[in-house]
Automatic annotation (TrEMBL):
GO CC terms, sorted: cytosol
Alphabetized UniProt keyword annotations: Cytoplasm, Glycosyltransferase, Magnesium, Metal-binding, Nucleotide-binding, Purine salvage, Transferase
Enzyme Commission code: 2.4.2.8
Protein name in the entry: Hypoxanthine phosphoribosyltransferase
Cofactor(s) required for function per UniProt: Mg(2+)
SUPFAM superfamilies given in the database record: PRTase-like
Pathway: Purine metabolism; IMP biosynthesis via salvage pathway; IMP from hypoxanthine: step 1/1
Pfam families: Pribosyltran
Species this protein is from: Hirondellea gigas
GO biological process terms on file: GMP salvage; guanine salvage; hypoxanthine metabolic process; IMP salvage; purine ribonucleoside salvage
Lineage: Eukaryota, Metazoa, Ecdysozoa, Arthropoda, Crustacea
Length: 219
């Protein structure tokens, strides 16, 4: 798949007003607008699942979920790949799953210190075709560290699916995943498991947090 195959959300994109969608009451005052509604996210993931299914063919795959932010994308993506497994009589992808917990953000900034907090032993990835499933590539530090870590365990291959990649104003995009849902503007987004100090993971849509939200939940 070409690495530039993603939906680009422009800097002057037209956001969706909060009042046109259902937002939990406890977040109503903390969000600026909706950038990506849940339904659009689902539709895009359906296509990513098809691309992955067609590329992998019937090779066994180990899908690695990067917790916590990746958990919703991971479950929705795998649901859609396994639906293809059921409906395509001739081809199916055998899948095993692993989890890695990484953490580096405090408030809306990367600390630069990528901590592996827990998860499965990476030694089980030896000789496997690995699909890393991540929610967002922002500075790219997490992915760079993770890929270096994975290589130490001699997987047969590593591909990366990230739902979002951020266009940062302070640096060009240096790393592009094999599969990407959306390239987004340089705004701090929350929802669909993306958090601000652990809040907003329980919001379905991907939204831009406002100053009130940052202040209310800051550490
Ligand atoms: O490209 P980067 O600037 O490194 O940012 C991306 C990472 O930041 C977030 O993780 P976080 O450390 O917030 O942990 P979380 O997944 O538990 O929210 C996100 O889930 C990515 O893993
Ligand atoms: O914009 C973001 N939102 C939530 N978590 C993140 N981790 C890196 N960038 C982001």
């Amino acid at each position: 798949m070409p690495t530039d195959s993603y939906i680009k959300v422009n800097d002057d994109y037209i956001s969706y007003p909060l009042e046109h969608f259902c937002i939990p009451k406890h977040y109503e005052d903390d969000l600026e607008a909706i950038m990506l509604p849940w339904g659009l996210i689902q539709d895009r993931i359906e296509r990513l699942a098809r691309d992955i299914f067609q590329d992998v063919k019937d090779q066994p795959l180990t899908a690695v979920c990067i917790l916590k932010g990746g958990y919703r994308f991971f479950t929705d993506l795998l649901d859609k790949v396994t639906a293809l497994n059921r409906s395509h009589g001739q081809v199916s992808v055998p899948i095993t799953i692993d989890f890695i917990r990484l953490k580096s953000y405090s408030n809306d900034s990367s600390t630069g210190d990528i901590e592996v907090i827990g998860g499965d032993s990476l030694s089980s990835l030896k000789g496997r075709n690995v699909l890393v499933v991540e929610d967002i590539i922002d500075t790219g530090r997490t992915m760079t560290s993770l890929l270096a870590l994975l290589q130490k365990h001699n997987p047969a291959s590593v591909r990366v699916a990230s739902l979002l990649i951020k266009r940062r104003s302070d640096q060009p995009i240096r790393y592009r995943p094999d599969y990407c849902g959306f390239e987004i503007p340089d705004r701090f987004v929350v929802g669909y498991a993306l958090d601000y100090n652990e809040y907003f993971r329980d919001l379905n849509h991907i939204c831009v947090i406002n100053d009130n939200g940052k202040e209310k939940y800051k550490q």
